Structures are given as structure tokens and as C-alpha cells.
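#structure-requests
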Amino acid sequence: MNSIQNENPELNLASGFLHNTAENIFLTGKAGTGKTTFLQNLKKSCPKRMVVLAPTGVAAINAGGVTIHSFFQLPFGPWLPGGRVEPGGEFKKGLNARYHKFSREKLNIIRSIDLLVIDEISMVRADLLDGIDELLRRFRDHRKPFGGLQLLLIGDIQQLAPVVKNDEWELLKDFYENPFFFSSKALKESGFLTIELKRIYRQTDQDFIQLLNNIRHNLNVSDTIAKLNNRYIPGVQNSSDGGIILTTHNYQAKEINDERLNKLPGKLYSFSARIEGDFPEYSYPTDLTLQLKAGAQVMFVKNDSSPDKRYFNGKIGVIESFTDDYIVVRCKNDTESIRVTAEVWQNARYGLNKGTNEIVETVTGTFTQYPLKTAWAITIHKSQGLTFDKVIIDAANAFAHGQVYVALSRCRTLEGLTLSSPVSSRALITDSSVSHFTEKIAGSHPGENDLRNAMLTYEQTLLHELFDFSTLQSRINEFMYVIAENRADVLTTHLESLQNLQSKINDNIHDIERKFKTQLDSLLLQEGDIRKNTALQERITKAVPYFVEKIESVVIDFLNTGKSIEVDNEVLADTLADRLKKLSDVIGKKLATLQASKNGFILSSYLDARAKASIEKPELKKQPRQS
């Protein structure tokens, strides 16, 4: 745990919920409150198997994950409940097989992860979340929202909103109140806890923090705009004092950068990026062909990977000179110039380590380029997540919810902020849906008692899951239903043998299961904390070998008897094989989790065994009968 988390109660609370419960968490907070740092630390510390996703390529690279659409192979059109809209506008029911022919490795990852992280959730549409839900239900537990996965949604709903075109909203408006993620039907069904980070690390001036808060919540508008417009200086865009201009539109930033670069004297240098493997264009962190001159204002677009840590993503400097091996950049207030060499960005996909079956990030492509871009101006959208000491803001043409707030909150101080055009109340665009949502969650933040209760509930739920044989019973019943419907094709001896074994399973497993769960509940009433409940742990260590022996004898005997049935009907043979495969998978998972608990129930051991059993399909051998 880092020093920031040690002194931040909200970050500690979020960490506790994610490490030790199954609660869905919406981690939010104003700009500069440490959301990105928390995610980086969580990836290193959390024992759960997780996947990190983001809505855009650049956001995914920055978060150390992959895009939502690439991981789930989802189309980009609107996703309507029960179907989706094809690129040509045609509505299709159900999932599109063209997009969801997952590899075995991808299916194993989806089935074995415990925690799904989505960064920059403010930019994710409700219909996209519901598309993810539908897909996860198909490949995991169809009865539970998001297939039973725990969600961590990170972002500030007061910042950049999801993009939805008019024609797309015409299709979606009959299903959703608004396009924001919190309108997702699956998310409403699953529920979530909101943890808001309060401490601001980017700004320390309380007057500036209050001004940003007023912009954020549309408070004291007249006074706030008057104070803000005191920072307006006509013609400031033409100054050369090292500030970066934030614009609302791409074309504005490009025009400013091209004009400034062309005005500079001297030779124009071009540097071509080297791309190896798969690195999609939408994820390029800087220009494919980087054109620079001495005197050009540039922004670093990556943190320094060397031990020196001389620069960071968002740092501003000026090109001093060029050599064959490096570019020299001078940054204001630095005592020495920086020799900048090319850096490598990695495009990754999630895969499985063949030896351990742990989820790993596998590099599929690289982008090698100098970590710079011309930066007299950038768009507000691309500034999200960055911090600057000096900013010139042109927000007169703000057109979307949260734009002005994002722009203003990039700067550390009010003194470092200058307006190139006055801000009017029309530019302070606040979506009423967001306002209602923030009011709704304002008084419902969890505390330490909620965490303790959720931890106990989580462990107790998983303990009951360990000794729950209902899925095993369902798989056996499904197989026997097919047999009963086709009894004319099955030998009488096989049918009688299966019926006898099914009766034994009911007597030796399901009847005992019901009695044992009553004992568990009684012991949990005496002490709810499983780790402290010695009597409960002793009872578990006695129950595990009993159930393992019954599965390895009677249940596998049933499985082997089913495999010995031969039928001439090819369709029936395939159906029986499918039912037996599903039964075999359930047996393997149940044996793995029971054996992981033979010395007592330990949460991390149980989760690890459950996840790996979703991947590994151990060969099930019939135990020899005891003489």
C-alpha cells in the first residue's frame, strides 16, 4: 500500500471492499483525487483475477488494460435490450456469432476472472454495459447480472460524457432515461456502492478548489463566472510564455500547432514511428510521423521509463536541439535539459500462462516513437487525466457536459490559468440526469461497518457455495431427462443402473448436504467470522473428505455409466455427450474447491481453486471400490 493510500480513508475503504467482498464499486471523485494511482496500486496488490478495460484506445493504454470493444469483440453500434443494431441499421436479436466466436483462451479468461475494472466510466454508454452483461450471462452464470462478476467502475461523472449520435439516441431513448452508464438495466439490477474520494492532490488553494466545485455543480453561477473571467486576457493565445492552450475542437488545436510550427525558423525534422505487430491506429499515443523544429513547444506523452524519472505524461517543454540519438528538451524551472530518447508503448491482450493458468497481459504489438507531440494546443478531451502548471483555455465553444470543468481542473492553481475568451453561463453545460444521479448517491456512501458486514457476508456466501451441490443435481437431472425422453434407445440395464446411482447420490450427497448446511448456519450464528470460528473450521475439515469420497465414487460412477451408453441416433449421441461434458465440468470444479479446503476454509485458496478449475478440466478417474 502506498503512502497516499495509507492516509486516505476512502481509498482504504475501496481497497477493503475490492479485496474482501463481492460488492460492485463505483469509485469517483473530483479531478486530481488519486483515482488513477489507486488503480495502478490495485493491479499490484489485489489477489483476485482481474481484467482492466477502458472505452478508448488511449485510455486503455494509460490504464494498462485493453479497450472494452476489443476484449468483448462487441460491435460499435447501439445495443438494444435483447439484441443490437447492425452497421446497416438492421436490428438483430441475440448475440452476433460473428463477433462472439471467442477462442478457448478468451473463454477461459472470461469464465475465471473475479473482478472486472472499467476505467473512465463517465464515457461508457448504458447500452454498452448491458451488452457486456448479456455476453457475460451467456458465458458465465446466466442468472446473475454481469454473470456474477464483481465490478469496479472508475471515473468522474461530472467530466466527459459518453458520445451518442442523434440517430443512435432515437433508437435508445425508448429503453433508457439517458445514455450514462448508471441507466444500465443490468447495473440497476446488480446495484453498486459509491465511494467518493475527497482529498484533492492536484490543487491546494482552497479558493480555486471552491471555484472548481461551483463550476462542477453549477453553484453561484454569476459570482463564479465573474471571478473566472478575471483571468481573461485578450490575445493571450499569441503569447509564448510556455502555457498550453486547451480547445474544444480538434481542428482548433491542429490549426494553432501547425501555424506555430510553420512560423518557427530552422529545419523541420521528421521522425517516423516504428510499429511492430498489432497496434491499432486509434491507440497511437502520438503522431505516426512526428514533425518538430528547434523552439517548438512540446508535451511529453509518457512517463519516463528510466530510473531518473525526468519527465511525466503532460510535462511541457521546448525543443533545444536534435542529434542522431536523442532530442534535447528544456523545461521551465528545470536545472538541466532532458535528453529524450525513443520510448516504447505496448498494446496488450489478456492471455493465460500455460504453466500456472494465471491471467497475464501478453504484448501483441509495440509503437516506438519519441514521447513528444507539438503542444501549443491540445483538445480538452485529450487533456483528461493530465496536470499542468500553466493553461490557456478557449472554452467559448464548449458543447458538451463537463468540458469546462475538465479544462479548468487540469491546472494546479488559479494563477496558472488564463482565458483566451470569456466564459459565459451557456458554456457551463450540466446534464440534469447527472445532477439527479449525484444527488441520489450523495448520502449513501458506505462506511467501515458496512465493509465489515460485507466481508462476513462474502465469506459466508462462498462457504455455502462450497457445500452447495444444486448445480451437480441439475446436471444429473438434465442428463436423466434426455434418457427418459429416449428410453427406447437405451438398454434397460443402463437405465436401471443410472436410476440406482441417482438415488444413491440423493441419499449420500443431497440429503447430507441439507443437514450439514443446518449445522453450518448454527455454528455461524455463534461466530460469524469464519477465520475465528475454530469449531466451524474443524467441522469443515471433517466434511470435505466425506463429500470428496462420495463424488469420486458414486458421482463418477454415474458419469462413467453415462459414457458407456451407445446409441445409433447421432443427434441423441451428441446431446448425451454435451450433458455429460457439463456434468464433468461441475464435478471437476467441485472437487477442486473441496480439496483446496481440506485443511479449513481460506478465502484466497478457495477463489484461486475455483478460478483455475474453470480453466483446467482434470481427468476424472473412478476410484477403486473399497473391499
